[in-house]
């Protein structure tokens, strides 16, 4: 039987084997939610990079560029890390370069996998349906916060496990933990997450609407996949 695993933070990725595995990267607040939204609204590709300098180099080549650090937009870039930014007509057909504190770093660290997918609650069903058709093991890589575990990405992992539990064996205790955590909170995720560290961080910035939006399930039939150095959207 295929197995599903969870890596709770990229700083633990060296303890996992990903060579024969599909990695699903989750940065719910807000990078992967932005990416899924961008593809749903017609962006052509997204190049995830680890550093602001790399992102600026793509910007100088004519790409729209998004840079976020510590949940704030970096000065000098066109786009920020709010999913509502990616509902604008300017992104339709565009190539975007993006760097974020946690999410894009997690994606770049996953390049040794069979495939790297971008997951969020927004495309949860599309990701689950796609994975059921694949013969490979799966690992959810939670982007976390600067190497630390966070609740929202772990809850996404649990939600995906819940959708796949009939098709995949639970590989490690982190899988059981994520699944049980989601079981406790799934009926009211905003309330369950209300005292989590990143919720408090975002609320200080006055962006409650981003939080509410990112916790919605199954809005888009979009599965972003890393092809070369760029994310593109697969049909599912």
UniProtKB/TrEMBL annotation:
EC numbers on record: 3.1.3.71
Listed SUPFAM superfamilies: ComB-like
Superkingdom to which the source organism belongs: Bacteria
Hydrolase as UniProt keyword: yes
Molecular function terms, GO-annotated: 2-phosphosulfolactate phosphatase activity; magnesium ion binding; sulfopyruvate decarboxylase activity
Cofactor dependency: Mg(2+)
Protein name in the entry: Probable 2-phosphosulfolactate phosphatase
Organism, scientific name: Spirosoma endbachense
